[in-house]
């Protein structure tokens, strides 16, 4: 009986550990994305896209809430770019442009990004078309 | 008609100046073309500037990248 108990408790323990690992992995993935569901949906639906200047652009005619969300995120982005620009001794525009290069690379298949000629492109499975000034 | 006339007068001028003046002027033309060839400094300076600029851009790009990853919710 005692041995059985020991085996059971061991089994439960390993299951608990596995469960905890699984939970922390899910939490980790959620943290890595961290996007507001409405923002994520607008990206996935191709309603907004990544511009070459480092900010989000509204594609076509979209609802007020999508336009407001885009504006809000762009203001927050400018704060991040400004902080980096000051610490690196470069202009905010330059920091934002470098961010744009990265943001376009970070898009996933189906999302939209702006090509160097200003047109909206669907991100395919391959590499996106970047501005020649991107590092 | 006038063109031919001018050409004739040019030839007459050269003849009147003679070989004594023609030779130094030819030497001068040759010398000036030699001077034009020698200008090696500028391209090297420009290349160095580009290299420094690229290093600054790469360092800044890394910093921007880090900032984006730290604020993944809005990127």
Q: Could you say which structural class the secondary elements and strand pairing of chain A correspond to?
A: alpha+beta
Whole-number count of domains of chain B: 2
Shape of chain B: rod-shaped
Alpha-carbon Rg of chain A, integer: 22 Å
Helix tally of chain A? 4
For the largest interface, the chains and their residue counts are: A-B, 26 and 17 residues
The ordered H/E elements of chain B are HH
Gap from first CA to last CA of chain B: 78 Å
What proportion strand of chain B? under 5%
| H and E string of chain A | HHEEHHEE
Helical percentage of chain B: over 70%
Helix/strand/pairing class of chain B, anyone?
Answer: mainly alpha
Overall mean pLDDT of chain B stands at 70
- Number-wise, the strands of chain A total 4
Number of domains of chain A: 2
Gyration radius of chain B, in Å: 31 Å
| Main sheet characteristics of chain B | none
Tell me what portion of residues of chain A adopts beta-strand conformation. 5-15%
Low-pLDDT residue spans of chain B? none
What can you tell me about this protein's structure?
The complex is a heterodimer of chains A (135) and B (75). With 135 residues, chain A is α+β, with helices and mostly antiparallel strands. Chain A folds into two domains: 1-34; 36-135, no CATH class. Helices cover 59% and strands 9% of the residues of chain A. Chain A is built from four helices and four strands. Chain A has helices spanning 2-33, 37-44, 64-88, 92-106; strands spanning 48-50, 56-58, 112-114, 120-122. A four-stranded mixed sheet of chain A has the order 2-1-3-4. In chain A, a hairpin with a 5-residue loop joins strand 1 and strand 2 (56-58). Residues 21-32 of chain A have low confidence and may be disordered. By secondary structure, chain B is an all-alpha fold. Chain B has two domains: 1-38; 39-75. Helices cover 88% and strands 0% of the residues of chain B. Chain B has two helices and no strands. Chain B has helices at residues 2-37, 41-70. The longest helix of chain B is centred in the first third of the chain and has 36 residues, at 2-37. Chain B is rod-shaped, with a radius of gyration of 31 Å. The A-B interface holds A 31-36, 39, 73, 76-77, 80-81, 83-84, 87-88, 90, 94-95, 98-99, 101-103, 106, 135 and B 54, 56-61, 63-65, 67-68, 71-75.
């Amino acid at each position: 009986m005692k041995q059985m108990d020991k085996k059971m408790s061991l089994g439960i323990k390993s299951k608990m550990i596995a469960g905890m690992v699984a939970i922390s992995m899910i939490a980790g993935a959620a943290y890595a994305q961290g996007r507001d569901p409405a923002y994520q949906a607008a990206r996935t639906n191709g309603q907004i896209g990544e511009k070459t200047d480092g900010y989000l652009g509204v594609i076509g005619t979209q609802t007020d809430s999508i336009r407001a969300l885009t504006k809000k995120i762009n203001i927050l982005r400018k704060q991040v770019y400004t902080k980096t620009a000051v610490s690196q001794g470069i202009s905010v525009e330059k920091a934002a442009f470098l961010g744009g290069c990265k943001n376009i690379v970070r898009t996933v298949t189906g999302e939209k990004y702006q090509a160097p000629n200003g047109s909206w492109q669907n991100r395919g499975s391959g590499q996106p078309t970047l501005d020649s000034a991107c590092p | 008609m006038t063109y031919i006339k001018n050409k004739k007068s040019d030839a007459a001028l050269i003849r009147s100046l003679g070989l004594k003046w023609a030779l130094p002027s030819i030497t001068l033309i040759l010398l000036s073309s030699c001077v034009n060839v020698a200008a090696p400094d500028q391209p090297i300076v420009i290349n160095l500037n580009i290299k420094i600029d690229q290093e600054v851009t790469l360092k800044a790009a890394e910093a921007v990248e880090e900032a984006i990853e730290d604020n993944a919710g809005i990127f």
